[in-house]
Amino acid sequence: MSSSRPARPAAGGAPCKQVAATREKGDLFLGEIREQPDALLRLLDGSESLERAAGALARRPRPLVRMIGHGSSDNATSFGVYAFGVLAGLTAIRDSISLAVYYGADVDFRDSVVVALSQSGRTPDVVRYVERARARGAATIALTNDPGADLAAVAEHVIPLAAGRERAVAATKTYMNELAALALLAAFAAGHGERARTEVNTLAEALRRSIPSLEQAAAAIAVSFVFVGRMFVIGRGPEFATAREIALKLVETCRLAAEPFTATALTHGPVAALDPLFPVWAIATNDESLETVVTAARRARKAGATLIASGNAAAQLRGAAYRLPAPGAPNPLLAPLLSVVPGQLFAHALALAKGLDPDRPAGLTKVTLAP
Amino acid sequence: MSSSRPARPAAGGAPCKQVAATREKGDLFLGEIREQPDALLRLLDGSESLERAAGALARRPRPLVRMIGHGSSDNATSFGVYAFGVLAGLTAIRDSISLAVYYGADVDFRDSVVVALSQSGRTPDVVRYVERARARGAATIALTNDPGADLAAVAEHVIPLAAGRERAVAATKTYMNELAALALLAAFAAGHGERARTEVNTLAEALRRSIPSLEQAAAAIAVSFVFVGRMFVIGRGPEFATAREIALKLVETCRLAAEPFTATALTHGPVAALDPLFPVWAIATNDESLETVVTAARRARKAGATLIASGNAAAQLRGAAYRLPAPGAPNPLLAPLLSVVPGQLFAHALALAKGLDPDRPAGLTKVTLAP
Predict the structure, then answer these.
(1) Would the pLDDT of B4 be above 90?
(2) Which residues on A lie below 8 Å from B243 (Cβ)?
(3) Is residue A168 classed as helix, strand or coil in its secondary structure?
């Protein structure tokens, strides 16, 4: 890891504390978006836990990786499907929590490795799922910001996400570190962990350099969307996770009806709902499914929708009214770590433009304790 | 199977043809919704193919069931996760088509049974996925309306859905028969096929009896929603598939921004977007996750949202402004076959109330040929 930069603040450190006394709307959320490059470097600092947990994967022949989480953590598992599949040739699934916990299905866990994601480590049904899976023979890995919480106590391996205390209700840096942890876990399991570490380090610096200009661009664009009530967000492959996460940020912080679709799913049906008052955020990334996104964006334009082109191949989308591109990634699989940031910044700017407080969406708390 | 009713029309038979010359908006869509009890009975008539295909599942020790499909067929796979899990103790997943087809992930298919769902049997990447999986050692089962199409040619086992020709662009009877076929396949694999056949037969008759009054109720309620631009649809467990399918029908036929969430996901974040102009359709069903839906509906009401209570436990949801309950199911797992119908009828009625033609949503064709 490079150490030529000034020492970075410790988790939950100075930037947030300074604004606490005179907090303005959105300061916490924006502060945490900006903190993401440092959060990634903190994760890399503690990557021995990732290496150890990857051993649990390597020790089982042809394991099934069962990922679970709610909200942003669930969105991260959509990325995990590709991280484990592409980097390690493993089948990784977004498993159903309720099937095991509520319906008590008599499923075999002996070939499984569970990867449970929870910011707080206290989400009750995630904890119960891990207990049940472990009792039935699964290897269990917890990814959490709080290695002292229940989830860490019930899992065999604990990977501290090291994102630092998250004060804004809507997650950003935790999601970022969940993506990185999943990619590193898959890479270590496949024996390419060191290369992935280097790539994440490079990516963190690219992200740091890009944030100031992205902030400006997002703020300039957001004002046009103050009266928009709905939006589709599309991506495919690893970027479907990004589509889900950006849509969720827009729902939570901007009270928008923002729905994610894969590029192909959009063209299959929902394109019928589009018109000039129904914009589409398209994530175009230089990888194997770029063509499906280009096609879907063309269909959306044909339906009259306003197009916001994002991702590192945003320039490939013709007819976009707005562009908020992401920087290029050191490895195509890691592009989602960069593509999500324009969406986070857009959500921040749009919430402010609407007079909302993105730090504290109505009626939400930080931990899902509901059944 | 009971034969006390008058002989039912053959697939794609009289009801649709009669209206073809003087079709009014929505006749095809409504005709196919009404035809669903007959479609189920046709599937039961040909259930030997289900029994044979279930043998492929039984012959593999602890198989991983990989389901794939787009649109409504993908929604049906959300139900399949529970059908295989609850009825047969098998892990069934909504597999990623793009991971195998576009990203070429080197995943092991030897322990897998692929269940590919496609109305037309011609969706290109579904066909390519099956070819690839079969070449790598998977057992392959195709569920399709057209046993003469490409998909049937590349799969080892073919289950004709027998839904009959679907003329409305938005699928209804195909989705219904996909759910039934998945439940029967799981039940046959577990050795309970005959019981499941009887239950589906009972269910078809319950559905037949309920449709006329549901049609009236849906039409009476729909007029209140003419100017609504967005909606959330919630369910959990097997009913998450229903939430996805109802939301998709509303997007396609009513141009609504309708997004499905599990009950728990709603309370985790999206509840923050709700207000009195943002209604919530809640599917409450008498099963193990009813409590989570009751809790989520209470949170939605607290946020001021207008509640439409549906499912066979609709009466459990306090404060609902509208109720469109589903009949009780002969087996809790089969409830989604009944819960989806009020949503289909509501979509039909709302599209008409908005002056739209639910038979032919703007810009859609019946087969997904896009990459």
Answers:
(1) no
(2) none
(3) coil
pLDDT tens-digit map of A73-82? 999 999 999 9
Q: For A20-75, what is each residue's pLDDT tens digit?
A: 567 899 999 999 999 999 999 999 999 999 999 999 888 888 899 999 999 999 99
Please determine, for residue A141, whether its predicted confidence score (pLDDT) is greater than 80.
yes
Q: Work out the mean pLDDT of chain B and round it to a whole number.
A: 92
For chain B, the distance separating the N- and C-terminal CA atoms, rounded to the nearest angstrom, is: 42
Per-residue pLDDT at A230 exceeds 60: yes
The secondary structure of chain B, three-state, reads CCCCCCCCCCCCCHHHHHHHCCCCCCHHHHHHHHCHHHHHHHHHHCCHHHHHHHHHHHHCCCCEEEEECCCHHHHHHHHHHHHHHHHHCCEEEECCHHHHHCCCCCCCCCCEEEEEEECCCCCHHHHHHHHHHHHCCCEEEEEECCCCCHHHHHCCEEEECCCCCCCCCCCCHHHHHHHHHHHHHHHHHCCCHHHHHHHHHHHHHHHHHHHHHHHHHHHHHHHHHCCCCEEEEEECCCHHHHHHHHHHHHHHHHCCEEEEEEHHHHHHCHHHHCCCCCCEEEECCCCCCHHHHHHHHHHHHHCCCCEEEEECCHHHCCCCCEEEECCCCCCHHHHHHHHHHHHHHHHHHHHHHCCCCCCCCCCCCCCCCCC
Q: Tell whether B340 lies on the interface with A, counting CB pairs under 8 A.
A: no
Residue that has been written with the tokens 């295909």 in this structure = B53
Planar angle of CA B217, B222, B225, nearest 5 degrees: 150
- Strands (DSSP E) contained in chain A are 64-68, 91-94, 112-118, 139-144, 157-160, 230-235, 257-262, 280-283, 307-311, 322-325
Distance CA B253, CA B168 (A): 10
Chain B hits for A227, CB-CB cut-off 8 Å, are none
Whether chain B has a CB inside 8 Å of the CB on A360: the answer is no
Q: Does B111 touch chain A (CB under 8 A)?
A: yes
- Report ipTM (2 d.p.): 0.92
A61 interfacial to chain B (CB closer than 8 Å) = no
How buried is B19 (Cβ within 10 angstroms: 0-12 exposed, 13-18 middle, 19+ buried)?
middle
Tell me if chain B has a CB within 8 Å of the CB of A363. yes
Query: Using CB atoms, which residue from B81, B252, B370 is nearest to A295?
Result: B370
Contact A71 B96 (CB under 8 A): no
**B:159-198 residues touching chain A, CB 8 A cutoff:** 170
Contacts of B103 in chain A (CB under 8 A): 82, 85-86, 237, 287-289
Strand partners, B324: B310
B64 vs A: CB within 8 A: yes
The gap from C-alpha A134 to its chain's centroid, in whole angstroms, comes to: 26
Measured between alpha carbons, how far is residue A155 from residues A147, A256, B316 in Å? 10, 37, 36
Task: Mark which residues 233-272 of A lie under 8 Å from B by CB.
Answer: 236-237, 248, 251-253, 255-257, 259, 262, 264-265, 267-272
